[in-house]
Amino acid sequence: MNAFLDALIAFASAHRELAYLTLFLAALLEAVPVLGSVVPGSTIILALSALIPGGQLDLIGVLAAAAAGAAIGDGAAYGLGHRQQRQILSAWPMARYPEVVAQAEAFFLKYGGWAVFFARFVPPIRAFVPVTAGALQMPPARFFAINIPAILLWAPAHVLPGVIAATALEQSHGRMHHWLPVVAGAVGVLVFAGWLIWRRRQGGAPST
Asked: VTT domain location, by residue (predicted)?
């Protein structure tokens, strides 16, 4: 992962426009049912946000790219579920993960709109809740009224830590890109820990 992040940072530094596209795709793919559970979108966003203090990327551009990708991804997943209804939950590829689908459904039925809000911050469940909300016929106006504010909080929650960490590390160590994978890894561990806590509260142990 460290080698991947180093290569990604170097690529983004040399190709500013493609860096924004990468951020957009990372956020979008995280919302794709099943696929989003394995795409390290949050880590990518954190890593590239560390280029903001040095001027390689713009804060507003990074926030906009991440938020736009998340909104389109969540909206597409919700729309797919809303059209296909419950049959999408037992279709491929979601049929390969019945336990996670069942937990996402139980989570949504228990918490309703709050499930849509909090799932945005908990990978990999964020890849299952929007499509589940659509499949269970949550009204579109209610879904987007909750989902969009969640995204507007989610984007800076992922971007600003990278900015702060990069600024501090650059000041104290000079060449922050050597330390960025460590920071990204630490955040990844915290995110994974949050997911494990969620799974435990749902009453099931994670399966591999």
From this structure: 39-162
Is residue 121 within 8 Å of residue 45, measured between CB atoms?
Answer: no
DSSP 86: G
Distances (CA, A) of 27 to 32, 132, 183, 199: 9, 19, 19, 22
What is the average per-residue pLDDT within 130-155?
Answer: 94
Residues 176 and 99: their CA atoms lie apart, in Å, by: 41
Task: For residue 175, give both structure tokens.
Answer: 């060449």
- Tell me, what's the pLDDT at 174? 47
Nearest to 120 by CA among 94, 152, 97, 93: 152
More confident residue, 115 or 194: 115
**Residue 204: pLDDT over 50:** no
What single letter denotes the amino acid at residue 143? F
* Cα–Cα distance for residue pair 117/99, rounded to 1 Å: 21
pLDDT in tens, 180-195: 554 555 555 555 555 5
- And the tokens for 208? 């591999």
Nearest to 166 by CA among 8, 77, 42, 51: 51
Q: Tell whether pTM > 0.85.
A: no
Cα–Cα distance measured from residue 50 to residue 11, given in angstroms and rounded to the nearest whole number: 13
d(CA 47, CA 199): 26
pLDDT computed for residue 38 by the predictor: 81
